[in-house]
Amino acid sequence: MRLGGLRGRLLVAFVLVSLLSAATATVPAYDQAREAILERAGASAVQNFRDRVNASVGEFDVPPDQRSLNRLAEAIASGSRDAKVAVRYRALVAPADQEAIPARLRDRVRSENRLSFQRVEWNGAPWLVVGTPVAFAGSGRPSGVEVFQVISLQPEQDDITALLTTVRDGVVPVVLLAAVLALLAAGTVLRPVRRLAKATRRLADGALETRVPVKGRDELADLAKDFNETADALQSSVAELREQEARARRFVADVSHELRTPLAAMTMVSSVLDEDAEDLPPDTAHAARTVSAETAGLARLVDDLIEISRFDAHAASLSRQDLDVAEVLRATLSTRGWTDRVTAEFVTVRARLDRRRLDVIVANLVGNALRHGAPPVTVVLRSTADDVFVEVADRGQGLTAEVARHVFERFFKADTARTRSEGSGLGLAIAQENARLHGGLITGSDREGGGAVFTLRLPRNGKEADR
By the number of CB atoms within 10 A of the CB, which of 121, 210, 294, 349 ranks highest? Predict the structure, then answer.
């Protein structure tokens, strides 16, 4: 359990609230009970002291001597619980030990001429000190005799300590019960939250049919309802977009197929005009060559669209055969007249690949390097036990991070100012689709020392990718 998580925070909050509640309820009650115990004990001790003084001074003569003071102290102290009695008359004191009697209390008894008391700590224990002046009978005039009694409050302190122990022992179960309730409450709250989090992750992974059950009428139920409504809207939007995309792809495929036949005728006618251009007037010859070039470009675009449509329709398949990969690469360069423009470093590698699709991939990579890179363009063939690697590198401007992210997208142009190029803008996308069909991949990056490098990885004997 994470302390910073919702469960941990709920647990800490419940425990703190229970501790605060227990402290709020028990501390004032403890203080009141403690004061009540001490006040009751003090009142009883004062009254007992007053009665014993009144009973003992009846036959006491003033001025007294030391012996009569000692007898008076013994008479008052007799029968008292842990009491120490001291009697003073001017310089005479009985007994001599009066450390527990605070000087302030002695002054108050003498100045106010009435009974006074004070609670003190003496030798690490609580005591009650009571003092009273002795007056002449009848006149009430002070006789100069003062009597003090020091009474132990240790029994009352023991009762207070026992009360504190009881209160403390009662708080611990309350805190434990609060912790259990916090865990139960956290489980009740977190269970639907975890369901929502799991459903959100599934939705983010593409499982758009994901929904959560709506239970109850609380805020979590409203949240689950909102999640389901959002998922419904998202699923509808995605379905609509996919339908629009499918319709667009079908339209492109249909148009491409419909254009193929007339383009074949146009290509044949433009080829004838191109061959006879030297016999035509200059302006007519230029127009004929322009028509021939544009027709050829349009034909390549249509062929690429038809090829990409096959991938979209999942109609593309592999025709594997055992190949000498180096021989295929040499044929690719030779057929297109690139042998003198490309530096090749080949090793003998045999693999089960689709020859036509391998030729398409390498032709697109090398053609792209020749058109948009700068010489020298190199093609390196190497292999491992499991894979075949073909690296096509140039010394051009290289790939920025932004271009590297989008370079395999359809109709992507690295230079947005360039509206037309010799390629259709589908070459690298088709190459990537062919690589994936083999279970491989093409990656593009900057080359150390300048330029770009595209690396094709194909499994030597891999199964066709699950598309």
Answer: 349
CB 157 within 8 A of CB 41: no
What is the reported pLDDT for 172? 81
Q: What is the distance between the alpha carbons of residues 339 and 330, in angstroms, rounded to a whole number?
A: 8
User: Dihedral, CA atoms, 105, 106, 109, 111, nearest 10 degrees?
Assistant: -110
Q: Across residues 218-234, what is the average pLDDT?
A: 88
Q: What is the pLDDT of residues 83-142, one digit of tens each?
A: 788 888 887 887 756 677 888 888 888 888 888 888 888 888 888 888 988 877 666 777
Short-list 141, 191, 170, 177, CA closest to 7: 191
Q: pTM of the predicted model, to two decimals? A: 0.51
Residue 383 CB neighbour total at 10 angstroms: 17
CA dist., res. 440 & res. 388, Å (int):
9
User: d(Cα 358, Cα 365) in Å, to the nearest integer?
Assistant: 11
Q: Is the pLDDT of residue 13 over 50?
A: yes
Q: State both tokens at 396.
A: 């051009």
Q: For the chain, what percent of residues have pLDDT higher than 70?
A: 93
Residue 414 near residue 372, CB atoms below 8 Å: yes
Q: What is the structure's pLDDT at 466?
A: 46
CA angle at residue 409 from 407 to 413, to 5 degrees? 60
Tell me the CB-side half-sphere exposure of residue 259, using CA atoms within 13 A.
18
Give the mean pLDDT of the chain: 83
The answer to whether the beta carbons of residues 111 and 102 sit under 8 Å apart is no
What residues pair up with 322 in beta bridges, in sequence order? 352
> What's the CA angle centered on 375, arms 372 and 381, to 5 degrees?
95
Burial 415-427 (b: 16+ CB within 10 A, else e): eeeeeeeebbebb
Residues 6 or more apart whose Cβ sits within 8 Å of residue 362: 328, 329, 332, 379, 390, 392, 456
